[in-house]
Amino acid sequence: MTVRPASESTRRPEPARPPRQARLRALDGLRLIAALMVAAYHYGGRGGEVSEAWAGSPKQQFPTLHEYFAYGCLGVQVFFVISGFVICMSGWGRPLKSFFASRASRLLPAYWVAVVLVTAVFALPMVAYKAVSPSDALVNLTMLQMPLGVDRVLGVCWTLWAEIRFYALFALFVVLPGASRHRVIMFCAVWTLAAVIAQNADMPLLDIVLMPEYAPFFIGGVGLYLVHRDRHDVYAWGIVAVSWLIGQHHAVQNLWHAPDAGGFSYRSSLGIALVVTFGFVAVAAIALGWLNWANWRWLTVAGALTYPFYLVHEHLGWVVIHALHRGLGLASAETFALTVASMLLLAWLLHRFVEKPLTPRLRAMLAKAR
């Protein structure tokens, strides 16, 4: 009996890329929710330098809410799941140069202006917070301050360093050879296994490249995009399930601590796991089309404001809190609401006058460059 190799016609047909559809506006709304979670954490869910702005610990400003705000840091993990979904969607069928141009033009214009803006504000004599040195501020413009060990202008830029490493891995192993279902599945499987091994290998270089504590969230998002393409794809669901299981483990391991009366807040392991689960379930609902009814135009605006808001909200938020609470004597709740509103307004200005004119120009320049 002769065994013939399986022909292309007998293999599982790969679903074609869905036709260009209306923007997934629910995903834009989820982005803003994640950004507001992080802002709540930075303004009222932690101690540190924000206490100087409040003239006391946020624990006293928000006696009850600070315990919930403390979970806001998990908005970053939600962002990473969204990023895995979006990067797989945008990189599918795109050549490497186009992928690079798209990512660079999306990140850099608002980032450059945010670095300059925060550096300039912190240099003002009436601002109590210390500015980084001019040399370090210039290095921050490269987005490589984290591996170089340089002081950060933007506290949130550590997440951008994680994003950049994910983009590099995805570009090298998926975009460059050409995206396909089989290649994406292998990428997810190999990265998952390598990240688990790196966790206990005691090799810093592997930790930097493979990001064991964040890899499950990016990989889970990639898996959810495969679900978006074919909701019956068992391998895709397997990727999502394994990523969720490992991701909640890392989140609990890194963010849980034993109850301590002298500590700022206490995050329960159940609470952490529930927030991680929310991120996966929310993106899954979008991937399956269950939230297609959330198609309001303002959600597109919300999604556009998320990145610039995320960049500027922390450090400039301290300045606004100080001015409103200590300068004008506004109550904590009013100060919190007005600070968020002012950062959203600043984000709109950055989007309108920086991103809208510069992003398409930079993308075109990079796409045409040899």
Your description of this structure?
The chain is mainly alpha-helical. Helices cover 70% and strands 0% of the residues. Helix 5 runs parallel beside helix 9 (157-175) and helix 10 runs antiparallel to helix 12 (215-229). The chain is globular. Residues 1-19 have low confidence and may be disordered.
How does the helix and strand content classify structurally? mainly alpha
Beta-strand level of the residues, as a percent range?
under 5%
Identify the quaternary structure here: single chain
Q: Strand-and-helix sequence, N→C?
A: HHHHHHHHHHHHHHHH
Largest sheet: none
In percent, how helical is the residue content?
Answer: 55-70%
Task: Round the mean pLDDT to the nearest integer and report it.
Answer: 92
Number of helices: 16
Low-confidence stretches: 1-19
